[in-house]
Amino acid sequence: MAYLELYAVSKRYGAADTPAAIDVLEGVSMTLDAGESMAVVGPSGCGKSTLLNLIGALDRPTAGSIRLDGEPLENLSEEQLAGIRNRKIGFVFQQHHLLPQCTVLENVLIPTLATRRTGAERTADADRAISLLDRVGLTERRDHRPGRLSGGEMQRTAVVRALINRPKLLLSDEPTGSLDQHSAQALGDLLAELNRTEHLALMVVTHSMELARRMHRIYRLENGSLTPAIGVSEK
Ligand SMILES: Nc1ncnc2c1ncn2[C@@H]1O[C@H](COP(=O)(O)OP(=O)(O)O)[C@@H](O)[C@H]1O
Ligand SMILES: [Mg+2]
Questions:
Q1: Which residues contact 140 (CB under 8 A, 6 or more apart)?
Q2: If I label 203, which of 21, 28, 54, 194 is the partner at 20 to 30 A Cα–Cα?
């Protein structure tokens, strides 16, 4: 049993049989295991973010089933889904959504605030935050606010925040989309390294073939279907 399993997942926006209805995903099946990484590429508007939102339990499929760690998400209440999002899934978006009034360290610790922690657990959270920030080269930036960081530094902060609760699955939606080439490469290095060392299941949506090639598998999403991309060419 893989950590993440999708069975014939479909997503329609708008009510069926109305002009507003749009079938974005039509029977997507896939699996992803701990320690595995995959990239999803495809034209703008093909449903990549929709797919990530369903897997991240931010939205529900119209049909089909998504299992995380063996558990079908469709059986869970909104509250249970919120718990799963907090404990099992890390998200990194193109826009990092850091809080401008908080320091880097405080931003990274925000996901830990959703659950009650003992004093010892709070100390362990802070230790993990400090060591992860060190690992991504942000020790000097720990007490700075996001407004003073470069794009690459903000994205690395967002990656650390996504990992603070030790998720098993990291979902990343065009993480390098707003970065220059050097920062994009550094972020790709970081994601690949975390995939290995933290034994994460890593799913990355990207327009960058350079980033996609660093993943174990590359899939193309087009016309509602997900297919292995063979011989994907640059651009
Ligand atoms: N909440 C929504 N309601 C209606 N249509 C949506 C919604 N979200 C996305 N769409 C539509 O679904 C399609 C896929 O969008 P999206 O998943 O964001 O694509 P991508 O991330 O590949 O660019 C687009 O046509 C978009 O306009
Ligand atoms: Mg998108």
A1: none
A2: 21
- Assigned domain for 233 exists: no
Q: Which ligand is nearest to the CA of 45?
A: 1
Residue 94 contacts residue 174 (beta carbons within 8 Å): yes
**Selection from 97, 64, 103, 92 nearest residue 175 by Cα:** 92
What residue numbers bound the domain in which 83 lies?
4-228
* Domain assignment of residue 235, yes or no: no
Atom 7 of ligand 1, residue of closest alpha carbon:
13
Q: From atom 1 of ligand 1, which residue's Cα is the shortest distance away?
A: 13
For residue 17, report the distance from its CA to the centre of ligand 1, in Å: 18
Q: Quick one: DSSP state of residue 154?
A: H
Q: What is the pTM of this model?
A: 0.93
As a whole number, mean pLDDT of residues 158-176 equals 95
Whole-angstrom CA distances from 108 to 15, 32, 160, 166, 168 are 39, 26, 6, 12, 17
Res. 108: pLDDT tops 70: yes
Within a 13 Å sphere around the CA of 63, how many CA atoms are in the beta-carbon half?
10
Answer whether 170 contacts ligand 1 (Cβ < 6 A).
no
Percentage above 70 pLDDT, the chain? 98
Q: Based on the structure, what is the number of domains in the chain?
A: 1
Quick check: is 21 in a domain? yes
- Here the CATH number for the domain that contains residue 76 is 3.40.50.300
